[in-house]
Amino acid sequence: MGFKGYLARRIIFAIFTLWVVVTLNFAIFMVLPGDPTLFLMDPKMKEEQKVMIREWYGLNDSWPVKYVKYMRNLLSFGIVPPYFGFSLKTHLTVASEMAWRLPLTVGLLGSAMILEILIGIPLGIFAASKRGSKTDAAIMASGLFTYGVPTFFVQLLALLFFIAYLKQAFGILIFPPGGWYTYPRVEGLLPFIADVMWHYALPVLTLVITGFAGWALYARNLLLDALTEDYVLTARAKGVSERSVLFKHAFKSIRPPIVTLISLSIPGLITGAIITESIFGLQGIGQWYIESIAQTNADYPVVEAVLFLFAFLTIICNLVVDIIYGLLDPRIRVGQRK
Amino acid sequence: MVFSKSTRAVWKRRIQGFSTDFFHNKIGIVGLIILSLFIGAAIFAPFIAPFTEAEVFQYSTRQADRFAYPDWIGLIAPNLADLPRQEYIVLNWSTAQLPAGVDLERIGSDIVLYYNASISGTDQPISVVFNSSFDYPYQPMRIFSLKIAWSATPDGVVTIWKRNILGWKVKAGETGTMAYMVQVCLITPNGTIYDLWDQNWNKYAATNYTTPPAFWSNIAGGKITFTSDLANLAQKLGFRPEDARQLPYKVMAEKGVYTFAITITLKPGSLKDETGKILEVPLEEATGNVTIGTGTFTVWGRRWGLLGTDGKGHDVFSQIIYGCGISILIGLSSALISVLFGVLIGVVSGYAGGGVDEVLMRVVDVLLCLPMLPMLLVLIHLLGYSVYWIVVIIALFGWQGLARVIRSQTLSIREMAYVESAVASGSSKGHIMVRHITPNVFPVALTSFILTVPGAIILEAALSFIGMGDPLSPTWGKILLYARLDQAYSPVNFAWWDILAPGIAITTLCLSFVFIGHAVDEIMNPRLRRRR
């Protein structure tokens, strides 16, 4: 079975997972009690009006019909009517609101993750090469520490220090207090982008601070394991330079597991985004999701669409990572069964 | 389950060996000490916490001013060393002189004034002034409140009845043989007098205050209760309504001896007959008494306790103590559920193999690449914001990684000679899984259990923090949530204690589990032991 077979399997698995998630999502709302039209209905309404409302929202359909409608709605990705439906709160289409919120979340997640990896993995390699030194111990310790520190606590500390303390004690504001752009909006495209980046700096910074040590620790442990392998010994015996051993021999072998970890860390990243957005008041998808769900009458169309989006993003990312894995791992690339 | 003697001996030896190893591990000991401190705090919470759970979580009670600094703030910020503590100053009234016609008797802490107009020989008002002084050597408080109660009893009471439109007899009012007036003022060290209160208090409109005519009360008692942040008080004292929130900064700005003076003015009452004609009470009949209780002047503390107060004036230290138990319990129970689930799925999947294995592992794969928090939020929303559901739901999303590890362990154990001999001697599959495989995956399960706890604690705290937690349980995440909602980190409040305290509590508790887990991991899985 070669790379094509592998690719096909991964794609089928991704589609299958998406289907499971979407169906679970459907089933949860079908099985659990609660009438979504309860707050639309006025007790004074006539019976015909109530029937009309239920008819309008398609609540009188049998469940297979609902399921088909639901799938059709989701799989159109909000591009064609009914655009993921209408928000019960704003009465706008879910898709239109998603369109401007999505880039914010993706920007936050993407930049945080890329920075984490770009800082964490070289640090891990560095620690492994200086094994047993103080640098190594410090990286290990910070890795252990970030395991126990909640990200949102670090973010609150950052807010406390940069927003409250510096402002109160010295009257300076290095980072903006919240939101994703200065209101009123800055003129011009480039200044606006710079402004948005300024607003993103603190959230991304806190995510990176809590995240990079985990990557460093992971890379270090993998690399240390790899350095005990026989082929490293052989390379050293041949007289290959230590630098070359580290990067050409050992590092190459740990790339696949690192890629796996990237795929496993994506769900956690979305968790982080939801909380980060709610702390820093970034109007991204996560904040929207919490606002829609944390109330008695949840905004179900939004909740379902965002849940679908999150699942879809995760699965697509996983698929991409799997493909990269396949390209990196020679056993899959040259078509050898694992 | 009854174990044979040899089994017991084996376990005894194992546990002894484990504890010997554990107590040689410094990180492990540190973790254990921290954890036992937290457990101790959780068990003895009612004895450690200075306030009851209701007192620190109910909206109606509070211990000090909102966002009061910790008591030791003076150590790190000397300019804040003379902030006031929470104080309930009892105003014990004393008077310099009594005019003729008024007798005074002290009954307990109350003062009873007996009025007799025939002795004074005049129908003009007579005033009695009581003073109460106290030393106030602090910076101004942000808010104070004043409480004084009194009762008045004229010796003769006449109820006046009237007929209304329907011809029914209704009570039109009561008049007595004595009329009185109460006024309270505050005298600052430099002699400025602020008229804080008189009986027209409720009649002042917030917008157009002018000195109202004296208002005489005929009967019954009353009380003064107010806090200093009222707009009409500020206006009455000649400030702008916006100044109400900083009123003490204006009124009590200097340190020194402040005096409250309560003035009781007495005069003969007047009777009104049904026709509306006013009949003055004759002097010999104009008698009555007024009882004044001790007043309380509350200085809402801007320094409070070990960890200050939160945005609602609740003691943070007590809240932290009450949060210990629930955090540990949530962490342990959801970790336990998820580990049991992981072991069950892992062992069954690894030992049964075939289709069962395939199905279970695909389920694990699917769950592993799901965004966990959004799903979790939906489930919590639908099942209800109860701490039990939250524990179960956190557990539900935490077992997949362990199941994979246990499965691979099971796969290798399955090939061991002793398992094969057990199969050969006719042991059932269930027996092998329970008696041979499970004990052998125990080290991994134990380590995973301890290392899952901090994740569960943090997740629960995060849920509480974004407002998706159990509203009835006093978790640390909730303290952080309210700190955020009450703007603890705005430059004005800058209530670092309200954020640092719960955050450090969560962090230390989680770190203690990480430390213990690290130590147990080194002992149980010697392959990973640090190479020295």
Describe this structure in words.
- The complex is a heterodimer of chains A (338) and B (532).
- Chain A has 338 residues and is mainly alpha-helical.
- In chain A, 74% of the residues lie in helices and 0% in strands.
- Chain A has helices at 3-31, 47-56, 63-75, 94-129, 134-148, 151-169, 189-227, 230-238, 242-280, 285-293, 300-328, 330-333.
- Chain A is globular.
- The termini of chain A are close together.
- In chain A, 38% of the residues are buried.
- The mean pLDDT of chain A is 82.
- Chain B is an alpha+beta fold and 532 residues long.
- Chain B contains 17 helices and 15 strands.
- Chain B has helices at residues 5-22, 26-43, 45-48, 53-57, 73-76, 117-120, 231-236, 247-251, 316-352, 354-368, 372-383, 387-396, 400-414, 417-424, 429-465, 476-485, 496-524, and strands at residues 87-91, 102-107, 110-116, 126-136, 144-154, 157-163, 169-176, 178-187, 193-198, 222-227, 256-268, 270-272, 278-280, 287-292, 295-299.
- The longest helix of chain B has 37 residues, at 316-352.
- Chain B is elongated, with a radius of gyration of 36 Å.
- Classes of the chains: A mainly alpha (338), B alpha+beta (532).
- At the A-B interface, helix 1, helix 5, helix 6, helix 9 and helix 10 of A face helix 10, helix 11, helix 15, helix 16 and helix 17 of B.
